[in-house]
Specification:
The complex is a heterodimer of chains A (281) and B (310). With 281 residues, chain A is mainly alpha-helical. Chain A is 70% helix and 0% strand. Chain A contains 13 helices and no strands. Chain B has 2 domains: 216 residues, Rossmann fold (3-Layer(aba) Sandwich), CATH 3.40.50; 86 residues, Alpha-Beta Plaits. Helix content of chain B is 37%, strand content 29%. Chain B has 11 helices and 14 strands. The chains are: A mainly alpha (281), B alpha/beta (310). Chains A and B meet through helix 1, helix 5 and helix 6 of A and helix 2, helix 3, helix 4 and helix 5 of B.
Chain lengths: 281, 310
């Protein structure tokens, strides 16, 4: 006679992974959760349309070199591509990032997470990685693939030899966009229990700062105040990374410092807000 | 033997308010009740032990590990069932509990298997594929226990585990807690303001009041000899009667019903001495004794004496 299966509580005698890998569990879960949403998949597919257009451009220029007069394939093209992707960076940031911490706050999940062998930095890192993975999928990944296509279509490394800085430039410019957007959104997400409100805050931060810059530009007649706009700072730094003439009068160093300050402020907010217990002093 | 938890002169303050004041306490292994009125510092103590709140001074040890130095090792051995509702949004029960298991370091396959097992154990087997957000209050309490158990902790922190449960669910939850502590070899600390819950499930008790330990020890010893308890109901002005009882060295406290419980300290005298003494005090206080009956000491008496004395 076979024994009756005991459905009572049993002690666990299997293996346990050492602490320090919780962030990967959070990231993987976040990535899979988003992949199950059709709307998100549609956004990600649309985000790759510019890549296809640029791939066709590279192909046409390779086959018909005279076409390069109309649409040249150079470092500036890769910069333009990344700037075009800024729109999708915004959409992905809002869709993915707004609820990353806000929904956990709404559901009191932080106390569940942090009661496990998980550091706060692991929780934050795991959540940030979810957003960064998808942001890199619409910036760095297509950017590097375009470079690869250029080499494949032309059948030589001449372009890369003449523009050796393009690969690090695409990488660095993508990381600037991804890190700034990721940290800012995650910090905002930790400030509210409503992901909609977080999305509004992020949109406000992006567009309001750009609007303020626009007004100041009209008033002062110069672009020295570009540092007040998040997107203007990123564009200015991107110009410098791609060795192009900068578009605003604000020194690049100032733009870099503003972006670093924004990231530092975001980390400070996260440090205060991501806790296992809400302490009201 | 290493105690489950030890606190050594621990002080925790929120701004200017001290939640724990120089607390020194030892929680032995087994089932220990952490009792105290609202605001006594019970939840703060648990959150300090989890590392959520850093103490201003003092040392906290869990299973022999210093919480300040090895928080991850401590939390790997702990299961925490929080007082307030908590879940990971958008997950069904199996996914949620397995996810908690993975966060605690279990391999994926083991986490899923354990999730099914503990969900059956806590009585959510049939509802394990439902989204947690659709659960009733009682089911949410059960799933909080399941997520605390999935990685098979050595020590469980249960913060008001029967809150919001109907009588049947409450009885079932208490049975689970009792089973874990007495049959499954899991040490636990049960924080509650419900004395019957603690009395049913625990062997030891630590009573907190105003951020300090009012009393602690085995429940039976605390309830044991040293006095007798009487249920008393009187008609008339209560205040002078209570003052007279206190003046005569008899402690009294009111209960949820209309009877009060009077504690007579000292050795047992001649048969009927205590009752006669209470009646004489009542007569002197001009109140009528309507009900006077010997009773057995309960944890409520221990609690009332401890909190009253502090």
């Amino acid at each position: 006679m076979s024994p009756i299966h005991d459905q009572s509580y049993r002690r666990y005698e299997g293996t346990r992974q050492p602490p320090g890998r919780g962030w990967a569990v959070i990231t993987w879960n976040g990535i899979l959760t988003l992949l199950s949403r059709r709307i998100f998949l549609a956004v990600m597919l649309i985000a790759w349309v510019p890549f296809i257009v640029r791939a066709v451009q590279i192909y046409v220029v390779t086959i018909y070199p005279t076409a390069s007069q109309l649409a040249p394939v150079d470092a500036k093209m890769f910069q333009n591509f990344l700037e075009q992707q800024g729109l999708f960076v915004y959409f992905v940031t809002v869709y993915v990032g707004a609820g990353l911490i806000a929904t956990d706050l709404r559901a009191n999940a932080l106390q569940i997470y942090l009661a496990k062998p998980l550091l706060r930095i692991e929780y934050i890192g795991g959540k940030l990685a979810v957003l960064m993975v998808y942001l890199l999928e619409v910036t760095l990944l297509p950017g590097l693939l375009l470079i690869m296509l250029q080499v494949m279509f032309s059948g030589s490394f001449e372009f890369l030899r003449n523009n050796a800085f393009v690969i690090p430039a695409v990488t660095l410019a993508s990381l600037v966009r991804v890190v700034v957007a990721g940290c800012t959104m995650l910090a905002l997400s930790s400030l509210s229990k409503s992901s909609r409100y977080v999305a509004v805050m992020y949109t406000g931060a992006i567009f309001f700062s750009a609007a303020v810059f626009g007004v100041l530009q009209v008033i002062t007649g110069s672009t020295r105040m570009a540092w007040v706009s998040i997107t203007a700072n990123i564009d200015q730094v991107t110009d410098a990374i791609f060795r192009q003439p900068v578009r605003y009068e604000t020194p690049v160093v100032v733009c870099v410092l503003v972006l670093l300050g924004l990231v530092a402020l975001s980390i400070s907010v996260l440090e205060r807000r991501v806790r296992g217990v809400e302490v009201v002093k | 033997m290493t105690p489950a938890v030890a606190l050594d002169h621990v002080t925790v303050t929120y701004g200017k308010n001290a939640a724990l004041r120089d607390v020194t306490a030892v929680f032995p292994k087994g089932a220990v009740g952490l009792l105290g009125p609202n605001g006594a510092g019970k939840s703060t103590m648990l959150k300090s032990l989890l590392g959520f709140v850093a103490p201003d001074k003092g040392r906290l040890e869990v299973l022999g590990l210093n919480v300040a130095e090895r928080p991850l090792d401590v939390r790997a051995k702990l299961g925490y069932m929080p007082e307030s509702d908590g879940h990971i949004p958008g997950m069904n029960a199996v996914t949620f509990v397995a996810y908690c298991g993975r966060l605690a370091g279990l391999p994926k396959a083991d986490a899923i298997q354990r999730a099914h097992e503990v969900l059956y154990y806590v009585g959510l087997g049939e509802a394990r594929y439902r989204n947690v957000e659709t659960y009733s209050t009682g089911m949410k309490q059960r799933i909080k226990l399941a997520q605390a158990l999935v990685h098979d902790p050595d020590l469980l922190f249960l913060d008001e585990p029967t809150n919001g449960m109907d009588p049947k669910g409450r009885d079932e939850m208490l049975e689970l807690i009792r089973d874990l502590a007495h049959n499954k070899g899991i040490d636990l600390i049960l924080s509650s303001h419900l004395l019957p819950d603690v009395e049913y499930t625990c062997d030891h008790v630590v009573v907190l009041d105003k951020g300090a330990v009012a009393t602690s020890g085995p429940i039976e010893a605390l309830k044991g000899p040293g006095g007798r308890i009487y249920e008393v109901r009187v008609k008339g002005e209560l205040a002078p009667f209570l003052a007279a009882l206190k003046g005569a060295g008899l402690e009294s406290h009111e209960t949820d019903e209309d009877v009060m419980r009077v504690f007579v300290p000292g050795a047992i005298g001649a048969d009927g001495d205590d009752q006669r003494r209470i009646c004489e005090i009542a007569l002197a206080s001009r109140v009528q004794v309507r009900h006077l009956k010997p009773s057995v000491p309960t944890l409520e008496d221990v609690f009332a004496r401890a909190v009253g004395e502090s």
